[in-house]
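User: Okay, second chain of the day. Same drill as before: sequence in, structure tokens out.
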Amino acid sequence: MNWAWLPDGSAEVHKVGVFKKSASTGEELNLDEDRIFWNFETNKPLRSVCSESCSPGTRVTRRKGEPICCFDCLACSEGEISNETDSTECTSCPEDFWSNPQRDHCVPKIMEFLSYHEGLGISLTTISLIGTLICAIVLGIFIYHRDTPMVRANNSELSFQLLLSLKLCFLCSLLFIGRPMLWTCQLRHAVFGISFVLCVSCILVKTMVVLAAFKASKPGGAGIMRFFGAVQQRGTVLALTSIQAIICIVWLVSASPTPHKNTEYHGDKIVYECDVGSTVGFAVLLGYIGLLALLSFVLAFMARNLPDNFNEAKLITFSMLIFCAVWIAFIPAYISSPGKYADVVEVFAILASSFGLLGALFGPKCYIMLLKPERNTKKSIMGRGATKT
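Assistant: Same drill. Structure tokens below.
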């Protein structure tokens, strides 16, 4: 039966179909749709619900003061899901998972670290290996020319030790690349600290020998060089490096660095990094390197105007200036860099300072030995020739 409005404003009910319970399935109801009167334009029956069902990925929020069938569908927050229709609440994903864009199921979080397979990791690894190769080549040049005045006048033993320590500095940067593991987290800063202290100690002793040699050339200073013999030089380098080794051992024993899953930077990512364990230990390690570098710079600066036969002090001054500038800039950049970019900043500082020391200390000497052999003479080294070094 259908209730229809007539033109005069009255209404009547008339038959528009028939229902036969005995008919076969699907044929019980027969309607004559042309006789049906619709009171709205869509010519479709209205749905008898206030709100449509909420799809997965959303949750039901009741409308205050309205019937229970009236509600809104709100999308689940990031990190939460709902996988049922008309869910009344969203469920948080497990710690290592995150919600997909549709918020209807959890997916594993992206693991982020400085990898050997990404562009940054490949570039830094390549630069590190190139620096190591250059150190090996320079060491070979110095060994080949070890009997020439240039090498002998610049303390060949300390130069060899310095080149070996620079190779360690370049190679230690590789420990900062790749998935952090317990042994890499423990070794990366220990090897870095010891390698750079060994390097700076060699430079410091070279500077002290330069100053001692100049004083020994003055009247009454002949006996000063007995305090700066080969044994004393090796002992000083060993003692200064041993202090850093003790700092590293105490740090590793008291508060060892460990791998850490950091979820604070990005909700959908796990930043896999090395927790330094003790910030004080890390600060003492860097502070000791800085102290030796500053002392080397001050001594070399004092000796920069010595006669030309001691002009290596000028190279040491320049190299220490580069070294200190790099590591002073490193501290604020490291603190403000999130996640894997903190490792990138540290590796960059290691490589930049290593290349600075290598280029400033050994570049001019290799230039003379390879391209200006006529200047590699005792007369030229002592500054008595027309051409000076």
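Residues 58-108 form one domain.

User: Thanks, on to the next one.
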